[in-house]
Automatic annotation (TrEMBL):
The keyword Repeat applies. Gene3D superfamilies: ABC transporter ATPase domain-like, ABC transporter ATPase like domain, P-loop containing nucleotide triphosphate hydrolases. Belongs to the ABC transporter superfamily. UvrA family. This is UvrABC system protein A. Residues 10-469, 477-773 form the ABC transporter domain.
Length: 791
């Protein structure tokens, strides 16, 4: 029998080899990750998982791919810096599927983000009756325009004029310009019509009676400043509200007079909402009302695009259908002339259903998707891809998924692996860790206490390893032996937002209430759409914290103001001196701590500032101390150390709250853009915890939390309730469900199969008597605990 031939040298690159990784808190990490296998990275929040997977491996893969493009193309691409690592070998091209929310561009929808809408447009341009034009005639981003005129060109040495005309048929609704909604200014929020301008009728921020803004109206001659606005003549009202810009003289100065509505629109409404000051933003939210466009009914499309139909449906009807229904309709379209197109479209629509997003519609704005929904939408592009030997990098793909949907996600991860791809997953859920071929556990703690490899190997070895992840892998929360009694209720009556079916429910107050149900069942619609926005309602959702490299936990929480004031008082100087963004900045690096050298189309180079040695402060500032520490040393402290340093006062109170939410390891000066998603949400929670007797609405607070940290979160929720608050949690984690005083289960399915209350009661009653999907999984979860106890 012949011996096996020697293996080819090309087969020796079977592992991704990382040597000496030092990104963020990583401490010279070296690991070998098997290729064409499913590897799960575990560890407490902040232990360095994302720094290793995203900041090192995926970042370097994308950087190397970018370098293969021509320099002309590279100058238009985002520049990625080289990760801090000694060596990275055998890296394959990486596709990153993260939890970053999709851009909130008003023109971006689920259909446009996945190319499904482009295929629908092509289908309607071929089969739609009556025929209205090419695919762009069904695009809500292209307006219909036409024009004609003379063009001058040179022919045979002579200038010749020729008449040319053009016509573009687009699908954009002319009234709403393809946005699907129109804004209307609520005039009652701009002024008190019972008063005159001289009496202070204006309620717009900055429009004071003796200010220039109001003088522009009172001294223009167009309106009577002493007459109540409700008594204006038709002409005065028109001039006051809508007059076109007109030159006038006020106190001998030439000025432009403009009606109040266009003036407000330009100064407030056309600016980025997030850039406005909080009181101006609150005014804009009150004054502007958005409503579906009356011309297109919110479909974004003009009459021509809506008139062309296939089997009785227009493209607007198809895009508005729930995707499961759209799949059924597409099965009825069987014209052989569009067979290749239909195959691609059906495959994309089937991917939505496979991935658990069948309850969406293609016209859903992509900015309204949750982090988990956005991540799964991005996956759709890759499910049917024929590419192989790719590294797929996932950031908690089970975020926002009910236990019922996690098994489906696991199947998809294994499918990608079985096609010959390397799948790298950052995850905390035991159900996902269980399917791993290889596990890399980082820790032992978070922040500076983490950044080291605790374990590498299979899942059985992880269980026996004694690491914090191994010890908690089989953790199961117990049902509470007794639950608290409600102290009143928040009544919701006739809720019909999105898929809710005229829901009546009493949300108990004074206890811990968990609202659960499969993804897309209507949980967020019920709570966010019906819990009133009173001052005592604190909503901690998953919207990202906006921050750049100059933002830090100290600036975000307001601690830095207190710290600067304490330094200024102790040294008899101005507080502005202790800001790296102001007078105290190092003159060389301007407060950044690094010198950034822009090298055009190649990567930007960052070097430590030699003058301030990375502190960001000038030498003069660092000479001032507070209890023996300078400002740079204080900002380098962890929240736990800083709480001991500032033993009392508002800074101490805020720091204690940071420790309570499990962020005691964060340094005060750490850049916000280096925090993980779970850390950012808990940072928001820490700021919001000051109120007593409030209603706290938390949207999936276990996102990004390690199994060991979930216990700390449950203890924190208990402390909030015991302090006299009401806590409403939208959550899928079985440990949080088991710990609840009251559960509201919404379902039974997603989209139009959900939207109803299928259970209200205690967790014990849910496990004992209900047969909803949530009850089945919670029963299995609690049963696993009893099985462990019995053995």
């Amino acid at each position: 029998m012949a011996e096996n031939p020697p293996s080819h040298v090309a087969d020796s690159h079977e592992v991704i080899r990382v040597v000496g990784a030092r990104e963020n808190n990583l401490k010279n990490v070296s690991v070998e990750i098997p290729k064409r296998r499913l590897t799960v990275f575990t560890g407490v929040s902040g232990s360095g998982k994302s720094s290793l997977v995203f900041g090192t491996i995926a970042n370097e893969s994308q950087r190397l791919i970018n370098e293969t493009y021509p320099t002309f193309v590279q100058q238009f691409m985002g520049q990625l810096s080289r990760p801090d690592v000694d060596a990275l070998e055998n890296v394959s091209p990486a596709i990153i599927v993260d939890q970053e929310r999709m851009g909130s561009n008003a023109r971006s929808t689920v259909g446009t983000a996945t190319d499904a809408h482009a295929m629908l447009r092509l289908l309607f341009s071929r089969l739609g009756q009556p025929h209205v034009g090419s695919p762009q005639a069904f695009s809500f981003n292209i307006p219909s325009v036409s024009g004609a005129g003379a063009v001058t060109m040179e022919k045979g040495g002579k200038k010749v004029k020729e008449r040319r005309s053009f016509e573009i048929t687009g699908g954009m609704c002319p009234r709403c310009e393809g946005l699907g909604e129109v804004s209307d200014v609520d005039l009652d929020e701009l002024y008190d019509k019972t008063k005159s301008l001289a009496e202070g009728a204006m309620t717009v921020p900055g429009y004071n009676v003796d200010g220039w803004m109001v003088k522009g109206f009172t001294e223009s001659g167009f309106v009577d400043p002493n007459k109540a606005i409700q008594d204006y003549t038709e002409q005065e009202r028109e001039d006051f509200l809508y007059k076109e810009p007109t030159k006038v003289k006020i106190n001998g100065i030439n000025m432009t007079y403009e009606g109040l509505v266009p003036k407000i629109t330009k100064s407030f409404l056309q600016k980025d909402r997030d850039s406005l000051q909080p009181h101006v933003r609150a005014f804009v939210d009150r004054a502007v009302k958005f409503m579906p466009c009356p011309d297109c009914g919110g479909s974004r499309l003009n009459e021509g695009a809506r008139s062309s139909k296939i089997l009785g449906l227009s493209i607007a009807d198809a895009a508005a259908m729930q995707i499961t229904d759209l799949a059924a309709w597409l099965d009825t379209v069987n014209d052989p002339s569009v067979a290749p197109l239909m195959a691609g479209l059906r495959q994309t629509i089937a991917s939505f259903i496979d991935i658990g997003l069948g309850y969406l519609s293609l016209d859903r704005s992509s900015g309204t998707l949750s982090g988990g929904e956005a991540q799964r939408t991005k996956m759709i592009r890759h499910l049917g891809s024929p590419l192989t030997d790719i590294s797929y990098v996932f950031d908690e793909p089970t975020a926002g998924l009910h236990p019922h949907d996690i098994a489906r996600m696991n199947r998809l991860l294994k499918l990608l692996r079985d096609k010959g791809n390397t799948v790298l997953v950052v995850e905390h859920k035991p159900e996902v860790i269980e399917i791993a071929d290889h596990v890399v556990d980082l820790g032992p703690g978070a922040g500076r206490a983490g950044g080291e490899v605790q374990y590498e190997g299979d899942v059985a070895g992880l269980r026996a390893s004694g690491t914090i992840t191994g010890r908690h892998l089989d953790d199961r929360a117990r049902l509470k032996p007794s639950t608290r009694s409600a102290k009143g209720a928040l009544e919701i009556r006739g809720a019909t937002q999105h898929n809710l079916k005229n829901v009546d429910v009493d949300v108990p107050l004074g206890i811990l209430t968990v609202v659960t149900g499969v993804a897309g069942s209507g949980k967020s619609s019920l709570i966010h759409g019906n819990v009133p926005a009173f001052d005592d309602v604190v909503v901690v959702d998953q919207s990202p914290i906006k921050g750049n490299r100059r933002s830090s936990p100290a600036t975000y929480t307001g601690i830095l103001d207190t710290v600067r004031s304490a330094f200024a008082k102790a040294n008899g100087v101005k507080p502005a001196l202790f800001s790296a963004n102001s007078e105290g900045a190092c003159p060389a690096c301007r407060g950044l701590g690094v010198i950034i050298t822009n090298l055009g189309f190649t990567q930007t180079v960052e070097t430590l500032c030699e003058l301030c040695e990375g502190s960001g402060f000038s030498d003069e500032v660092l000479e001032y101390t507070l209890d023996g520490k300078n400002i740079a040393e204080v900002l380098a402290m962890s929240a736990s150390d800083a709480a001991a340093f500032f033993a009392k006062g508002p800074a101490h109170t805020t720091l204690v709250r940071l420790i309570d939410v499990g962020l005691g390891y964060l340094t005060l000066g750490q850049a916000l853009n280096t925090l993980s998603g779970g850390e950012r949400q808990r940072l928001k929670l820490a700021i919001s915890m000051a109120k007593k007797g409030a209603i706290y609405v938390l949207d999936e607070p276990t996102t990004g939390l390690h199994l060991a940290d979930v216990d700390n979160l449950l203890a924190l929720l208990d402390r909030l309730v015991e302090a006299g608050n009401s806590v409403i949690v939208i959550e899928h984690h079985q440990a949080v469900m088991a710990h609840a005083d009251w559960i509201i289960d919404i379902g039974p399915g997603a989209g139009h199969d959900g939207g109803a209350i299928v259970f209200e009661g205690t967790p014990a009653d849910l496990v004992a008597s209900s047969d909803t999907l949530t009850a089945q999984h919670l029963r299995e979860y609690v049963g696993a605990l009893q099985g462990v106890a019995a053995s």
